[in-house]
Q: What sequence folds into this?
């Protein structure tokens, strides 16, 4: 059974370090990046490039899979990295594994859209406190349990308070099956206390726990599953809002970096 997949007693057959070429490691070596922002929106990347807010570390240094390879960026004027991940737990987990191998980073700030399970307005920021593990990836990194605690949620919430960013604290439902979020499952997750549904949080927390990294993740409400489904801003977020969420993530990363330096 998949819930019995966690094996802390033996080594991985293939490690991220085995798949990264020596020339890629050499290209990454001059960039001692400690914090990475991970996003899931190609449209956001295009906006950030157009506005001169990010720049590639080196055009030859990319990350991704056989399906796509994307540059690894730096937020201009900082030593904070930024990458575009594919959607879903396995791809996001692999991105984290490879960044941990390429760079001395131990902190990830992740943001993207989610579906509201309760009556929340579109665009509301949510800080997940626990994630329901309805995906397969996390069971290879952590002992089986229905939930995983998001360890840095309280610290993230305190930083958002300092920035004056309103948010909702609540549990999230992490699923692999975008088109199988059924009425009964939704009702049970809401009964359990979930306020949103997304596709990466529980797996990213499990990877970070296992590899000794910190995860700071917030999501914003896009579509709504409260009552009948409504698309709302799913895939249609305005430029100003995309840049606003990026600016929040950038400021959070800068605050955490400053705390490290003090």
A:
């Amino acid at each position: 059974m998949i819930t019995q997949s966690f094996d802390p007693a033996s080594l991985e057959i293939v490690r991220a370090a085995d798949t990264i070429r020596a020339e890629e490691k050499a290209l990454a070596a001059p960039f001692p990046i400690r914090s990475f922002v991970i996003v899931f929106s190609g449209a956001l990347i295009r906006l950030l490039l157009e506005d001169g807010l990010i720049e590639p570390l080196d055009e030859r240094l990319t990350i991704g899979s056989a399906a796509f390879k994307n540059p690894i960026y730096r937020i201009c004027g900082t030593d904070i990295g930024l990458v575009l991940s594919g959607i879903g737990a396995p791809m996001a987990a692999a991105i984290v594994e490879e960044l941990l191998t390429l760079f001395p980073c131990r902190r990830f700030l992740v943001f993207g859209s989610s579906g509201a399970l309760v009556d929340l307005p579109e665009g509301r920021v949510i800080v997940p406190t626990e994630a329901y593990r309805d995906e397969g990836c996390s069971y290879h990194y952590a002992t089986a349990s229905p939930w995983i605690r998001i360890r840095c949620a309280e610290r993230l919430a305190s930083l958002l308070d300092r920035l004056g960013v309103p948010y909702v604290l609540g549990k999230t439902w992490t699923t692999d099956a975008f088109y199988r979020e059924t009425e009964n499952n939704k009702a049970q997750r809401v009964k359990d206390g979930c306020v949103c549904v997304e596709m990466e949080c529980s797996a990213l927390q499990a990877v970070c726990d296992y590899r000794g990294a910190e995860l700071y993740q917030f999501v914003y409400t896009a579509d709504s599953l409260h009552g009948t489904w409504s698309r709302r801003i799913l895939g249609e977020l305005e430029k100003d809002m995309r840049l606003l969420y990026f600016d929040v993530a950038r400021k959070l990363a800068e605050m955490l970096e400053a705390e490290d330096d003090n």
Q: What stands out?
A: Residues 219 and 238 are 16 Å apart (CA to CA). The chain has one domain: 14-254. The chain has eight helices and twelve strands. The mean pLDDT is 95.
